[in-house]
């Protein structure tokens, strides 16, 4: 049933590409809250190479992932098939953030699809463990389509509001860890 893989091979890339959503899990080094976030928009996730993946982080309600990555870098990505073929795939690794004003961001951007408004960062993950499991208890769901609400909302947000969020509610996690910092263009790790 469960299998550990040495790399993200073509069959795993194909499985990842078919998933309409993925989940991101992080946690602080000490105390605090574990964060688990669902992510949508298929074209915001990319396999860069056999041991590197990345996703576009869009402005949302919180900033836990970025704060936890600045704290310790630990991250797990989970894909879960809701189709007739049951499977769960987890990518364990060390993540880092790349801001849109970083030169590396332009290179990363070529791996993603549609332009999405409100891109906050790219999260790049060096994957050190790749494992799947059966997913036999995961229910069947039929995908109706991608929800366009976040793109529609972010498309009308003025740039000043994004800048205000970096200095304001996206400056720290709910546990008080530093997250987005307008004074430091790159994470403090």
UniProtKB/TrEMBL annotation:
**What EC class does the entry list?**
oxidoreductase
Pfam family membership, one: PNPOx_N
* Cross-referenced SUPFAM superfamilies: FMN-binding split barrel
What's the domain of life for this entry? Bacteria
Protein name according to UniProt: Pyridoxamine 5'-phosphate oxidase family protein
Gene Ontology molecular function terms on file: pyridoxamine phosphate oxidase activity
Q: Which residues form the Pyridoxamine 5'-phosphate oxidase N-terminal domain?
A: 9-130
Q: What is its EC number?
A: 1.-.-.-, 1.4.3.5
Which keywords does this Swiss-Prot/TrEMBL entry list? Oxidoreductase
Q: Which InterPro entries match?
A: Pyridox_Oxase_N, Split_barrel_FMN-bd
